[in-house]
Amino acid sequence: MGSLFESRGHSAKINALASKAEQDEPDVMTSSIGKSITRVRGRQRNETHWCVADIEWQHIDHARIRDNLALYYVVTGASFVETAADLYTSNLVEFFPDPEAQQWLINYWQPEELQHGLALRTYVETVWPELDWASGYQQFLAEYSQLCTVEALESSRALEMVARCVIEAGTSTFYSTLQRISDEPVLKTLTGLIAQDEVSHYNHFRHFFEAYQQQEHIGRMGVVHSLYKRLGEVESEDAYIGLKHAWLMRHPGQPFSDVQFQAISLTLRPLMMAHYPYRMALKMLLRPLALNRTLVKYSMPVLELAARRLMFRKH
Ligand SMILES: [Fe+2]
Ligand SMILES: [Fe+2]
To answer: Is residue 172, in this structure, part of any structural domain at all?
Structure first.
C-alpha cells in the first residue's frame, strides 16, 4: 500500500478535475451511439484521468475528519459497495451479449468502480487506522453478495440499462453531495473525482439504453415503472447494508437493528437534504423518458420543489 501514498505532484490537475464535477451534467446526445461512446470514452481514458496514486493522502487534514461520524459512515459504506463492483459486473456481462457493452463494462466501468472502492478504502484506513476495514468488508460481502444474482436483473436489456442509469444518477448525485458536505480537502477532491466518473458512467448506460430501446420499443410507462422500482431499491438495500457494516466495524459483535439505522439516518438526513443536487438528479432521471425538452425546462422548478419535499422523507 506504500506506493499509494506517494504524491506525483498532480494536485493542480486533480483539483481542477474534481471541481469540474459540480458543474458536470449529462452529455447532450448525438445521433450516432458509437460516435458518442468514443467521445465520452476519449474523455475518460486519456492522460487527464486520475488514479489512486494521484491523491495526496499525506495532506489529509485529520483534525477535520477524524471525529466526523456522519462522514465516516457514508464513506465507509460507499467503499464497501464500490469494492464489490466485480460481483455485479459479472452479472451484467452475462446479461448483455453484445461485444460493445461487454467491452466497456469489463475494460472501463469495472476498473473505475474498483478504483473508487480502493481510493475510499485508502481514505478510511488512513483516517481510522485502528478499524479493521478488510474484516468489515468480508462481513459486508457475505450479506451483500446474496442480492447480486442474475435473477435480480430486469426482464429486458433496455430496462436493465434504465435501472443502471438510476444507479449511476444516484451515485453521481451522492458523491456530488459528499463533495459539498466535506470540509476536509482531500475527501472533497476525491468525492469530486468520483462524482465526475459516475456522470460518465450514466452517459454510457443511457447510450446503451437508447440502442436497446430501438430494438425493444419499451413504452414510456414501462420505463417509468423501472425507474421507480430501482429508485426504491437503491435506497433500501445498498445504503442499509453498507451503513450497517460500517457501524459494525466500530461495534464488533454487537447487534445491529433498525434503532441503530434510524440513529445514523437522523444524523445524515439533514446534511444530505441541505446539499443534495436535486436539479441534476431530476435531469438524469427524466432523460430516458425522452420528454419534450421545453416541457421539462418549464416544469423543473415545480419538480425540484416536489423532490425537495419527497426525498429523504422519514418512512
Ligand atoms: Fe463508483
Ligand atoms: Fe458508476
So the answer is: yes
For residue 185, the enclosing domain spans: 61-310
Q: How far does the centroid of ligand 1 lie from the alpha carbon of residue 298, in Å? A: 32
Cα of 57 vs its chain's centroid, Å: 22
127 pLDDT above the threshold of 90 = yes
How far apart CA 255 and CA 131 sit, in angstroms, is 18
The pTM assigned to this predicted structure is 0.81
Cell readout for 56 is 495526496
Q: How far is the CA of 198 from the centre of ligand 1 (A)?
A: 6
Measured in Å, residue 196 CA sits from the centre of ligand 2 at 9
Q: Is residue 142, in this structure, part of any structural domain at all?
A: yes
Give buried/exposed letters for 17-50 (b at 16+ CB in 10 A, else e). bbeebeebebbeeeeebeebbeebeeebeeeebb
Q: Which ligand is nearest to the CA of 169?
A: 2
The domain tally of the chain equals 1
